[in-house]
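Incident log, structure service

09:12 report received: a user says their structure output differs between two submissions of the same chain.
09:20 pulled the input from the user's history:
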Amino acid sequence: MSKTNKAAILAIIAAFFLAGCNRTAAPVETEAPLPIVPMEAEELARVEAAFDVAWTGEGELKINPANCFLTSYYESAEQLDLQAFLRYFPGSELGGEAEFEALRNMKDWPFSHCEKLSDMPVPLHRYRADAVRAVFEKYTNISLEALDYVNAPGVYYLEEHDAFYNYTSDFGLFPLHCVRGEKQGDRLYIYSEEYGEYPDKIMVRLTLEKQGDDYIVISRMPVEDE
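09:34 re-ran on a clean worker, output below:
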């Protein structure tokens, strides 16, 4: 190859290289965030009704299981405090003597000093695990087994009975009073006030997400009121 041809080829290669270096990369398209829209009073009223504490039917107090999701704070439903969730869970039955004996062997069972069931100063409640699973999965669309509930402090589960137990003797559920709400796409952000360290109040945000024709619970956390 002559020096002239070699120089011409090198010039072409150099020109191609420089053209590539000067070529501007195409901009990456990003989706704009969905707008946040204030919720109307009628919409907030429907949310409050969905989390109503209880209603009376035929002289019987019936607890709304959705309200149990307002008993703790969690960044995702998998982090929900199951002990607080079960404290006032509806549909409890009275536990028996055999179950009491099994619970006495649990290291953190607070009534191990009682020799028999009748010695307990509070009732022994049994919550069938299939009912708990059904409610949890209905309102979160995730399995209850996503929680480490068997070893969680204050959660008492007997595998042989497939049931949870507690000893609540009062009624401590409270209604949801919406201060305001926001919509962003399929998500609802519901703000309410509750007592932190008395007498101070804190703002709490409940996040719901539309799935199909209904909404599921995503999280519930304290937030700074802007």
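09:41 both user submissions now match this output. Likely a transient worker issue. Closing.
09:42 reviewer note: Helices lie at 3-22, 41-50, 82-87, 97-104, 129-140. The radius of gyration is 29 Å.
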